[in-house]
Design a protein that fits this description.
serine protease, Alpha-Beta Plaits, single chain, N-acetylmuramoyl-L-alanine amidase activity, disordered N terminus, Rossmann fold, about 1300 residues, globular, alpha/beta
């Protein structure tokens, strides 16, 4: 899912009664900066794009002014007579548009002409409405706030050394990037940093450089900047931004811009140190290149960087006018649209020969799927991955065998001690008698889930906060002191009492009411009680059944842990018969599969058969049965059990509460004799390969001999875990979890995150402190630890998707993933004297690299529905050391940053080198050369990983950039502005900015056919053929052979499979993909590689096979008729066409009174309520201009939910407006009509059509149906209708069924004369 931009939500201020037409109301919709046709307007700052081309894109057409668009391989000139004339023409056009809404040029905050034609201004809602209707205006966007999204990387990427790119391609680092200008749109730069010192020999800027060094407006001259032969340009954009936390100049406070600039083109061999630690020498990717900084992001109060879209577009416009060759844009962007103002400015920049590198975004571990930003094909979208910095470390825990005992002075105290092992904040407690086993064990599985039964036990139970529930024990008529103390400590909201009055008296129940809301689950006997507990689960797919006989309690003990881990119940049965309560419970739970625990002596064969048992888990005795149950957890040497609990097999009380804890932890309980571990249990524990063990109960239950035997199973008494660090080690030292050392005036939640001032100094002193990632900066957590007197920190992630970073901390620190963090926390909680030793950096296990950073945003790309693969490539973006601003980085001139903001400038710098080496290449050729030579494998020769599992092209695009290989590419996939516009048309977005005529001229195309270096199909409905053209890049041509690694379940055929490309020539080929047995709706991946002279040219393939390829809508006319259309199934089997409709429109005649011209103050001049019934296949609301008076009117149409939130609209010029939603949610909706062009009080009259097809109306058939189909083989279907009324509009839906639910649909609209 993508991360949406912040949106203001407004709603209808009143709702309509059924069937009423309501007077005008104020209806406005969520604003979407990226989509001018899906917004309704409020006062604010807006970016306005005019219809005329920018200077970079103008190819002629204005009388007397020749084209200014640069020829291929040339840079844009802004100083020619044609450029000056056309700029003056654009100024006049902008002035006229401003004048049309009562403004003049002085009212514009920014004006743009080079890479974008338009202006930014403060506008009223009415002015915005008027501009959106103006044919001279292409689009209007609300001004948005955007956010900031190396020591060894030149070595890692193969730039250095005798065989490195700098030497082999440029004759050394002194010439690597010479004459190229890299533009950095970011937070500015720190001019005194040695990465930005003057270049050797003080070379002049390129002859075509038009930029300037704007020093700044700060009152103190020291806060302004100066330029030199390295940094040849600087500008800043304070308008529409909050500058109160920053310098009023291009000087950088944040550090982000300096870091990006230093990474891309910082000087060579700059000595770097952080916090006084010398780190060696570092370099940028293109150390001889020039830099130009455009400060459009500003320091915020919380230390981040942000800027408005208005300023960012101004920076892009200036950068292209100044003459940069490359732009780096490590700034957030849209995940949904390629027609935002900044993306369109980049389109014209790329069209003018500027290479644009953009960051993919840092939402991979939060938003996740489809979070990738910058989906435009004309920019290079860069993901982030790790590199080979030697910052591997490890943490060693403890010094003895990881065996602990949980026990108390008696069974009640033991249960209380076990409860103390649960995490903080549990919401529910189970109470059972300590006098017999049955009630406690029947409830243990439910307690593992924290289930709270409903009042009256007539509804399935719920887990209010998802936390588990400890089991505490009580006497029949008295609450033991240990239990009371535990209840006071836990402070639960809910208490579940197991068993009747004989087990837990009413007096005890009443007393428990002082601690929480009490619910009793009690049957007439233990079997009914267990059945009642089980029924609280609702329907389940399986259950466990054990004997309820006292002498055979251990089977239920070990089985409860297994059931609890799987979220299913345990039922109790008699050994020789099935109690009626059990049979009734099984029926109530939907007759689930029954797994019996225990041998035939415990549960007889007759009972097994009566239960309908599917499996028996048993051993030769109770100890063997506990091992048989433990094996079901699936732990082994490759997947070791985190912990194994051991309880006595002779008596139950000490272990009663332990099975619930084990179920919550997802680990087994095995049984032992009191004085020795049975061989079958010893062997079973060895097979489980536990990382730790817990003994449940005191020495009277399991003596020290048992503990000794368990300890002997562990070869090494310590536990060692890998992680990442930068700096020295520490320890051994006591280990403490921050949640246990909360400062007096703080909270557990703040202490967990190690927020400033949250830790108790006495508890932290001389300890290594466990802190959890989140909320505040990682390095601030170690500052908190240091201030509290701690000597080290374990920084634990919340999950395995979050990145691991070697930050420079205030105390020795190791950063570990979520699984490791949980294990370390569990160890700290279970060991009475926990200790830890953190190694120095470089002393951990050898790292595999690259690995995708957890934060790196990934696809499929939302903007194109997955038909364009984004991100394009990955580069180092974790623990990158480069220049920063000491003002925002603790006085350091260098620091380690992580983010796709860090990976993008690697690509920007590498592109600068390639453009220097190949000045005639287009930006897309440069992009193609890097993408088709990228490597999708890691240092082990396996696929790059993400979160510990193989990643895919949705994460890394083509793979990790390989600069050296890119220079040897023989072929490139090139494209130009016509291709890009065609792509934007094919995904329905160019039309949103007034480009419908362009799209009509270009004709229909499929977005997957864009001539791109990767191949993606977001909805393969059976079969599809894509086309690509390669261009010779070597000047020598050659013959190439296709090697296809077809995505699993997809057949791929290349035609021709061998191509010959003449020197400087091209060759075109097709690839046909056909679904065979691929899993529908699941992405599958492969590659196409052309082999021949030079480097292999590899394109990743990403395909999402779907059930059907069918037209979205077919249209017909006449009271009877038919239409034949083609569908392509993505499956083999039987296809049934299901008819919904045809249904005539429900017509409401309306008189709509305008509240004023240009839309007036609101958009709801009339409102009609509509109720969508359950089962509605589609809703369409429609007005037809020819049916309305007066002639030539302009109506706009809106569909909103019952609260007035606009869910769809049609607001084009004229009055042919229609809004359609397929498979709408049932409920109340509102249709609003705006008489946009009417004078105040003027009335428009005409009909509103509402269509809501659902059932088959008997007037349409689809043939053949049902019909046998084969995946990938097209077939023709015919929709025929008859018996329709004249002069009526109809709508229907054809649903396509594979035997179950409908998997796709086609709308059918028929108008009768």
């Amino acid at each position: 899912m993508h991360q949406p931009s912040a949106r203001r939500r407004t709603r209808l201020l009143a709702l309509a009664g059924a069937g009423a037409v309501i007077a005008p109301l104020a209806l406005v919709a969520p604003s979407a900066w990226a989509n001018p046709d899906l917004t309704v307007n409020e006062d604010g700052t807006y970016i306005v794009m005019l219809a005329d081309s920018s200077l970079a894109a103008y190819d002629g057409g204005v009388q007397g002014i020749p084209a200014t668009k640069p020829a291929e391989g040339e840079k844009l000139s802004t100083t020619t007579a044609a450029a000056e004339d056309y700029t003056a023409y654009l100024d006049r056009q902008q002035n006229a548009v401003l004048d049309s809404v009562g403004l003049d040029r002085a009212d514009a905050v920014y004006t743009y002409s080079t890479a974008f034609n338009g202006f930014t201004a403060d506008l009223t809602g009415s002015q915005v409405s008027a501009l959106r209707k103006d044919p001279k205006v292409a689009a209007v966007w609300e001004n948005e706030v955007r956010y900031t999204d190396t020591i060894t990387t030149p070595d890692y990427l193969g730039l250095t050394g005798d065989d490195g790119v700098w030497n082999t391609q440029f004759g050394g680092d002194a010439n690597a990037g010479s004459g190229i200008v890299v533009g950095i749109i970011d937070t500015g730069f720190w001019p005194e940093n040695p990465s930005f010192a003057a270049l050797p020999g003080d070379p002049e800027p390129p002859a075509d450089w038009n930029g300037e060094c704007v020093e700044g407006d700060s009152a103190d001259p020291a806060d302004n900047v100066t330029c030199n032969s390295k940094v040849i340009g600087a500008r800043f954009y304070p308008d529409t931004n909050d500058t109160s936390f920053d310098f009023e100049s291009p000087r950088d406070t944040n550090g982000h811009g300096s870091h990006v600039g230093g990474t891309s083109a910082g000087n060579v061999d700059v000595p770097m140190e952080i916090n006084g630690v010398e780190l060696g020498e570092g370099s940028g990717m293109a150390p001889a290149a020039h830099l130009a900084f455009y400060k459009a992001l500003w320091q915020t109060e919380d230390g981040n960087g942000s800027g408005t879209s208005a300023g960012l577009v101004a920076a892009i416009d200036d950068a292209v006018a100044d003459g940069v060759d490359v732009i780096n844009y490590s700034v957030s962007g849209s995940s949904d649209y390629v027609v935002t103002a900044d993306e369109l400015a980049f389109l014209d920049a790329a069209n003018a020969g500027v290479f644009v590198s953009t960051s993919a975004g840092n939402s991979g571990d939060t938003v996740g799927e489809s979070s990738v930003a910058h989906n435009s094909p004309w920019t290079m979208t860069v993901a982030a991955s790790t590199h080979d910095r030697t910052n591997s470390a490890e943490v060693e825990l403890g010094g003895g065998a990881p065996v602990t005992r949980i026990s108390g002075t008696n069974r009640y105290d033991t249960a209380a001690q076990i409860a103390a092992a649960y995490p903080e904040g549990v919401d529910t407690v189970y109470i059972a008698t300590g006098n017999q086993f049955a009630d406690a064990l029947s409830g243990a599985a439910a307690a593992s889930q924290g289930l709270v039964p409903a009042n009256g036990l007539d509804q399935p139970a719920v887990a209010p906060d998802g936390s588990p529930a400890p089991v505490l024990l009580t006497k029949v008529d008295e609450i033991p002191s240990a239990t009371m103390e535990a209840l006071e400590s836990i402070d639960p909201d809910n208490i579940v009492v197991l068993g009747g009055e004989v087990a837990v008296s009413d007096d005890v129940e009443d007393a428990l009411g002082d601690y929480g809301t009490v619910t009793r689950v009690a049957g007439a006997n233990r079997y009914e009680t267990a059945a009642l507990v089980a029924e609280q689960y609702g329907e389940v797919d399986h259950v466990y059944v054990a004997t309820g006989q006292d002498e055979a309690f251990p089977d239920a003990l070990s089985g409860s842990a297994l059931a609890g881990s799987e979220g299913v119940p345990v039922l109790l049965t008699k050994s020789d018969m099935v109690p009626g309560a059990v049979s009734d419970a099984l029926e109530a739970m939907g007759d689930p599969e029954v797994h019996v625990i225990g041998g035939s002596a415990a549960v007889s064969e007759d009972v097994f058969e009566d239960l309908g048992g599917s499996e028996r888990l048993s051993g030769t005795d109770r100890y063997g049965t506990s091992v048989a149950v433990a094996e079901q957890f699936g732990y082994d040497a490759d997947n070791p059990a985190p912990v194994v609990h051991t309880a006595t097999g002779r008596d139950y009380p000490d272990a009663l509460a332990g099975s619930a804890l084990a179920g919550f932890q997802g680990v087994p309980v095995v049984l032992s004799r009191p004085d020795g571990l049975p061989n079958v249990v010893r062997d079973g524990m060895v097979a489980l390969a536990p990382e730790s063990a817990v003994i449940l109960g005191g020495e009277g239950a399991l003596n020290d001999d048992v503990r000794t035997e368990i300890e002997a199973l562990f070869e090494d008494s310590s536990q060692t875990y890998p992680g990442i660090s930068s700096g020295m080690g520490v320890g051994p030292a006591p280990l403490v979890n921050s949640v246990d050392i909360v400062a007096a005036d703080s909270t557990v939640a703040d202490a967990e995150l190690c927020l400033p001032g949250s830790l108790d100094a006495a508890g932290a002193a001389d300890n290594i402190v466990i802190c959890t990632r989140g909320t505040n900066a990682r390095v601030e957590k170690s500052e908190t630890v240091a201030e509290a007197g701690g000597i080290g920190m374990v920084l634990a992630n919340n999950n395995n998707e979050e990145s691991l970073n070697g930050d420079f901390h205030s105390v020795p620190t190791i950063h570990v993933d979520g699984t490791t963090g949980d294990a370390i926390k569990a160890y700290e909680a279970s060991d009475p004297n926990p200790t830890a030793t953190i190694s120095a950096t470089g002393e951990g296990p050898e790292l595999t690299y690259p690995e995708m950073a957890g934060f790196s945003s990934y696809g499929p790309a939302s903007a194109g529905g997955g038909d364009l693969l984004k991100p394009d490539i990955t580069a180092p973006g974790v623990d990158v050391i480069a220049a920063v601003s000491p003002a925002g980085n603790g006085g350091n001139n260098f620091d380690s940053y992580s983010g796709t903001s860090m990976s993008a400038p690697h690509i920007a710098g590498l592109a600068a080198l390639m453009m220097q080496d190949n000045p005639e290449w287009s930006p897309m050729a440069v992009k193609s050369s890097m993408m088709t030579t990228a490597d999708p494998t890691n240092s082990e020769g396996e696929l790059i990983n993400y979160a510990g599992a193989p990643a895919s092209p949705l994460h890394y695009g083509s793979g990790e950039v390989e600069p050296g290989a890119a220079y040897g590419t023989p072929l490139v996939y090139d494209s130009d502005v016509i291709d890009w516009i065609g792509y934007a048309c094919s995904i329905g977005q160019w039309q949103l900015i007034g480009g419908a005529a362009d799209c009509a001229d270009l004709g229909e195309s499929d977005p997957s056919d864009l001539n791109y270096p990767s191949i993606a199909i977001g909805d393969l409905g059976g079969t599809q053929t894509i086309t690509r053209t390669v261009t010779d890049a070597s000047g020598e041509g050659g013959t190439f052979t296709a090697e296809v690694e077809a995505p699993p379940g997809i057949d791929a055929v290349v035609e021709p499979s061998t191509i010959t490309v003449e020197p400087g020539g091209t060759a075109t080929f097709e690839v046909t993909f056909t679904t065979t047995d691929a899993e529908l709706g699941e992405w599958t991946f492969g590659s196409l590689t052309w082999t021949g002279p030079g480097e292999d040219v590899r394109s990743p393939i990403a395909i999402n096979p779907v059930a059907m390829g069918a037209p979205a809508e077919i249209r017909g006319e006449g009271t009877e008729g038919s239409e034949t259309f083609e569908v392509t199934p993505g499956f083999s089997g039987e296809l049934t066409s299901v008819v919904h409709g045809l249904m005539a429109s429900d017509v409401t005649d309306l008189d709509v009174t305008s509240d004023g011209p240009a839309g007036g103050d609101g958009i709801a001049d009339a409102v009609v309520p509509v109720t969508v019934p359950e089962g509605t296949s589609a809703i369409r609301v429609e007005v037809v201009e020819s049916e309305w008076t007066p002639d030539g009117l302009d109506l706009d149409l809106y569909l909103a939910d019952s609260e007035g939130n606009v869910v769809g609209q049609s607001a084009a010029g004229g009055s042919d407006e229609s809004v359609t939603t397929v498979a709408p949610a049932p409920g109340d909706y509102l249709v609003a009509i705006d008489f946009w062009s009417g004078a105040e009080g003027e009335v428009a009259s005409g009909p509103l059509h509402v269509f809501m097809p659902s059932a088959d109306e008997g007037n349409m058939t689809v043939t053949p149906s049902p019909v046998a189909v084969t995946a990938g083989v097209p077939l023709d279907l015919t929709a025929a209708w008859t018996g329709l009324d004249a002069a009526t509009r109809y709508l229907g839906v054809i649903g396509y069924s594979t035997g179950g639910e409908e998997v796709a649909s086609t709308l059918v609209s028929v108008n009768t004369p």
